[in-house]
Amino acid sequence: MEPCKTLYLNDLPINVTKAERLDPKRTVFRLTLSSPLSYNLPSTVIVKQQKIGWEDEFQQEIQAYKSLETLQGTIIPIFFGRDFFNGLDALVISEVKGITLHDLARGNFDVHQKELKMHLEKALCAFDRHKAVYWDAKPDNFLFCADNIPEKSKVMVVDLEQVEFPHDLQPWHHNSGSVGNLMSKFRNGQNPNRPLSPAGACYQPGVEDEEGRSDMIDIQ
To answer: Region Disordered: start and end of each range (predicted)?
Structure first.
């Protein structure tokens, strides 16, 4: 189905000059807008449509963006609002210029594992400070955003459908416990023949895994 050429944001119609579906399995689009400055938007935005039967998760993601507003643009994408696109409710968020940990491990990139682990800890500790639990910590949901100045590189987190704000936080809710598992998955992607960690399939906060090594990744 060809995407429509109009995006309705806060009931205002915005003309779309180009629509690119990012994943054949998901209704997520990169849209190029005409006259974006008239709506205080960048020229390119990401539109994430609500999944069929995922009404609660859709509302939960909206609430997560609002509750984590101070992290927008640094740890999570900027949330521009709720819209209507191609006949479905959707979110309009900023595009993140980065590469997922899944693709990073399988591509021809150089990055220090110690540096990557540090950026993951920074991102997930930001969730901890806001008493938010991120239950969907898998490599596809973390993007490494490299910068020519290494100190400005960072990891950003996407897909907030499974973010919760428990009233009674427990020690095992700490997101920092997911870092070891993410690094283990990253190394498994780098070296598919590597023996799998017993905890490698678990992404939940509070589950520790082996420590990240500080050697350089050089994937051929």
So the answer is: 187-220
